[in-house]
Specification:
Length: 332
């Protein structure tokens, strides 16, 4: 009896030691930044925890917040759809950009009686957000979608109120296609809007569009689909009206040429079937990052890529994936 009790105690102690050992091996990483890729990142983090036990806590606070957090080293990684500029990099020496996926910024709208797929040109989008076109039945809009009866509803444009990589993608595109936009507003994570109200994050802008008749705004494709908000086909540099999708985002990404450090905004693609408001999103990491982060990045750039299509993101082109993995290999 005495030895049986001792054996039970020994087995229990062994089991407890084993559990503590597993717990000790599991790691926690922290990150913050872009809302643009957040639906995919949350899925990645769940799957990675199930596979490895490592937990990744991510706060979707916008690209500007992600850059500030990684600069302050208050997180293990930042996330941004806008590449850091030279000044930002100077304040955070040692950071490298790792592209993860590409995504489409859609022009989403809430027009009474109108479904998805209206056609919009580059100049019309710019002038809507500049306040030069104020009604949905403006001839410049109606002639682009013959057969569609637009109501005389006032246009209510919405934008991001926080520092945003999605804003950077959208305003970079408009600066490339509209001289008035470039001169009056310009491009960046935060700009001085001439018209409209702001919402926080992609979710905030999506909510404003959905609850406002006549609303229009720019959000990542997944947020439009999840919230059942119609979005437009946009004319690209080849003159084709392209509907945002995984295929048209992939076409734009595959046609892009990235700088050696990946810091490139790939809007206004020259690919005939490419969606023109497309951008890569990046994880921002220091070269002396934790080993666990390096392992996660290797997984995200390989096994994790298979999850992109389901959530309406485009996988990295093979050439970009190869370069990204080579950059991860340089982490200490």
């Amino acid at each position: 009896m005495f030895f049986t009790k001792l054996n039970k105690i020994a087995v229990t102690a062994l089991a407890l030691t084993s559990l503590l050992s597993v717990g000790a091996q599991a790691q926690t990483l922290t990150g913050a930044g872009a809302t643009f890729p957040a639906p995919l990142y949350q899925k990645w983090f769940q799957q990675y925890k199930a596979k490895t036990g490592d937990e990744i806590n991510y706060q979707a606070i916008g690209s500007g917040g992600g850059i500030k957090a990684i600069t302050a080293k208050s997180v293990d990684f930042g996330a941004s759809d806008a590449p850091m500029n030279d000044t930002e990099l100077k304040n955070a020496p040692g950071i490298i950009h790792i592209p993860t996926v590409a995504g489409a910024v859609v022009v989403a709208y809430n027009i009474p009686g109108i479904g998805p797929g209206i056609h919009l040109t580059q100049d019309v989008i710019a002038d809507i957000f500049l306040g030069k076109i104020s009604k949905w039945d403006d001839p410049r809009i109606t002639k682009l979608s013959p057969g569609t009866k637009f109501p005389s509803t006032s246009i209510a444009p919405f934008h991001r109120s926080d520092g945003s990589g999605t804003t950077n993608i959208f305003t970079t595109f408009l600066s490339q296609v509209s001289g008035d936009w470039k001169d009056q507003v310009g491009a960046g994570k935060s700009v001085k809007w001439t018209k409209g109200l702001g919402g926080k994050g992609n979710p905030g802008v999506a909510a404003l569009i959905k609850q406002t008749e006549g609303g229009i705004g720019y959000i990542e494709l997944a947020y439009a689909v999840q919230n059942v908000i119609p979005y437009a086909a946009v004319r690209n540099s080849k003159g084709n009206f392209i509907y945002p999708s995984v295929a048209s985002t992939t076409a734009a990404a595959e046609g892009a040429t990235l700088a050696s450090d990946f810091r490139t905004v790939i809007t206004n693609t020259k690919a005939a079937q490419g969606y023109p408001i497309t951008g890569f999103t990046f994880l921002l990491v220091y070269r002396d990052s934790k080993p666990e982060l390096k392992k996660f990045l290797e997984w995200a750039l390989t096994d994790g890529q298979s999850q992109a299509d389901d959530l309406l993101y485009a996988k990295l082109p093979a050439s970009v994936q190869k370069r990204a993995l080579a950059a991860v290999a340089t982490l200490k």
